[in-house]
Amino acid sequence: MNPIIETTPARSLNFLEEIVEADLASGKYKSIITRFPPEPNGYLHIGHAKSICLNFGLAKKYGGKTNLRFDDTNPTKEDVEYVDSIKDDVRWLGFEWAAERYASDYFQQLYEWAVKLITKGLAYVDDQTQDEIRIGRGTVTRAGTESPYRNRSVEENLDLFTRMKNGECKDGEKVLRAKIDMAHPNMLLRDPILYRILHAEHHRTGNEWCIYPMYDYAHGQSDSIENITHSICTLEFDVHRPLYDWFIEKLEIFPSHQYEFARLNLTYTVMSKRKLLELVKNNYVSGWDDPRMPTICGIRRRGYTPESIRLFAEKVGVAKRDNMIDLSLLEWCVREDLNKRADRYLAVLNPVKVVITNYPEGQVDEVTAVNNPENEDAGIRKIPFSREIYIEQDDFMENPPKKYFRLSPGNEVRLRYAYIIKCEEVIKDADGNITEIHCTYDPATRSGNDTSGKKVKGTIHWVSAAHAATAEVRLFDRLFTEACMDDIPNDKDYKDFLNPNSLQAIKAYIEPALKTLPPSTNVQFERLGYFVTDKDSAAELPVFNRTVTLKDTWAKVAEKG
Ligand code: ATP
Ligand code: MG
Fold first, then answer.
1. Is residue 198 part of a domain?
2. Are 448 and 366 in contact (CB under 8 A)?
3. Residue 10's pLDDT is what?
4. Which residues does the chain have with pLDDT short of 70?
5. Alpha carbon nearest to ligand 1 atom 3, residue
6. Number of the ligand 1 atom closest to the C-alpha atom of 272
7. Dist CA 405 CA 95 (whole Å)
8. Digit-coded pLDDT (tens) for 140-195
């Protein structure tokens, strides 16, 4: 028996883990090999992250290996830019591949196997046009018709296929098809196309080839070449499985097996690469890494951590049926992780000035703040306190309702890490707008050394006006207004549901310690949410992205109705 199985703690396994454990226990495989097979035609998104965590996670759990294989059989849509970004993203998620492979590495082998199929009488060159082939394939209720070229001799097929390969034919003039069954109930087995002619430069093989294998012909055989034991893909490929198995059987090669799981769908999100590309190309977002994008680089710039994405993949689990995951689960996962790792700071997003009239002018006090109550190692820091401070406009109400525990005329509130202040007077301009709030403070109420015996219900955050720096803070909302972006009416376009308020950039005041953080530092602005320094940050103007609020504000809106 495999030792890994004996040490596995008793907990429920997902269906893939069950399969792998059974295969190891029966001795079918000594160890497993999985692969992650992206097509380098776009940036990876959170759905791919799910697949990455699944493939790499499964191999890791059972002491196996995972290859990163670029499925680069479509030269016109692919690019090295995407290859590099995909490698970055996989590494960032915390995984290292055993081998970096390309379907194009196998073009010669795949070609030889095509010759083998021809020789066995299992493939033929078809001169029909694309339309003729499509019509000839029939429908689900009607059998297809055989191509007039279907019964060419092996010799003629070999000759024609060689000519195709040697560049003697124009694009679309001929294809190579498998000879299976034009009446097969599974349409994909009605003589599928194996090769098409494409005089296009490939990002790796240049102009070496002018025939390119189709996905179905390349994918399973690439798995087989790499001895992939468990080839995991999304549900829509289950109808492809008989074809996957047919090639392996007829070519008598390593029997990789395909297993399907439900793709990840997230509310308020589109995940097709075509649509994401369109959002980028037409400037609906600032780029692939716009923090509102569901791309891995976007989510990363938004402030998500690899740990939070891995936690999310685990929470989502592995389903056999399509489902829709609520975006709030992703947000829950990042809060869970950042709560432990993000240091707390003070920042004010919508400032109003408070003057503490009994605090000596020119005096500066240093109050002590705990950096992270969840992590003692994070230590403490000093924050300057002075006569003039900013607080949030929201934390003051001139005519408060009952149970409003923040600042209001005649009332007291605690300033985080500092003193209790009392509102004495509200100063307004000619239009009636509040310009300053005048307060007094009680020196006996200093946090950590409070001898006053006073109790107040509210604590608010603040920054010292003379010491604060200005920062740009970017607040994000969902990119789309519709939860199920797959179910939008036929006469609508997904872009009709773009949320016009998904980005709000504001000027905020931040405490001095926030001025000099390195890029991509996760922090909490107390009471406001988790934020991260953005790559646009400069010494003159730090930029922060809000990753997520501290609580689920949408849940509250939903409750209120
Ligand atoms: P497209 O958006 O162009 O259809 P794709 O999402 O299929 O592309 P690939 O590069 O072919 O992109 O996908 C690589 C791997 O990621 C495949 O194994 C695929 O099954 C998996 N994958 C893609 N989208 C999701 C998703 N939403 N959930 C889980 N896995 C996914
Ligand atoms: Mg695909």
1. yes
2. no
3. 52
4. 1-11, 553-561
5. 273
6. 2
7. 48
8. 999 999 999 999 999 999 999 999 999 999 999 999 999 999 999 999 999 999 99
Residue-wise pLDDT for 302-342, tens only, equals 999 999 999 999 999 999 988 899 999 999 999 999 999 99
Q: Which residues form the domain of 319?
A: 266-343+471-560
Q: Note the pLDDT of residue 287.
A: 97
How far, in Å, from the CA of 549 to the mean position of ligand 2? 34
Query: Does 77 sit in the ligand 1 pocket, CB within 6 Å?
Result: no
What CATH number is given to the structural domain containing 403?
2.40.240.10
Ligand 1 within 6 A of CB of 45: no
Give the distance (Å) from ligand 1 centre to CA of residue 193. 22
Q: What kind and span of H or E run contains 533?
A: strand 529-533
- Over pLDDT 90: what percentage of the chain? 93
Torsion sign over Cα 213, 211, 112, 71: negative
Nearest CA to 334 among 315, 312, 313?
Answer: 312
Written as one string, the DSSP assignment of 175-216 is: EEEE-S-TT-SSGGGSS-EEEEE----BTTTBTS-SEEE-HH
The single-letter code of the amino acid at 4 is: I
Query: In DSSP terms, which residues pair with 426 in a beta bridge?
Result: 437
352 and 317 share one domain: no
Contacts of 117 (CB under 8 A, 6+ apart): 123, 178, 194, 250, 251
Please indicate whether residue 263, judged by its CB atom, sits closer than 6 Å to ligand 1: yes
Report the domain count for the chain.
Answer: 3
CB 293 within 8 A of CB 276: yes
On whether both 316 and 420 belong to a single domain, the answer is no
Exposed e or buried b for every residue in 202-215, given b needs 16+ CB within 10 A?
bbbbeeebbbbbbe
Report the separation in Å between the CA atom of 164 and the middle of ligand 2, taken as the mean of its atom positions.
Answer: 26
* Cα gap 467→383, rounded to integer Å: 9
Cα-to-centroid distance, 52 and ligand 1 (Å)? 10
| Ligand at shortest distance from the CA of 78 | 1
Provide CB contacts within 8 A for 103, sequence distance 6+: 69, 70, 71, 72, 73, 213, 218, 219, 222
DSSP state of 501: T
- Does any domain span residue 9? no
Left, alpha or beta for 172 (phi > 0: left; psi -120 to 50: alpha)? left
pLDDT tens by residue, 344-371: 999 999 999 999 999 999 999 999 999 9
Q: In what order do the strands lie in the sheet with 463-464?
A: 459-460, 412-415, 420-428, 434-442, 351-356, 388-392, 463-464
Separation of alpha carbons 402 and 439, rounded Å? 21
Q: How far apart are CA 434 and CA 353, in angstroms?
A: 9
Q: Supply the pLDDT for residue 27.
A: 97
On whether both 20 and 165 belong to a single domain, the answer is yes
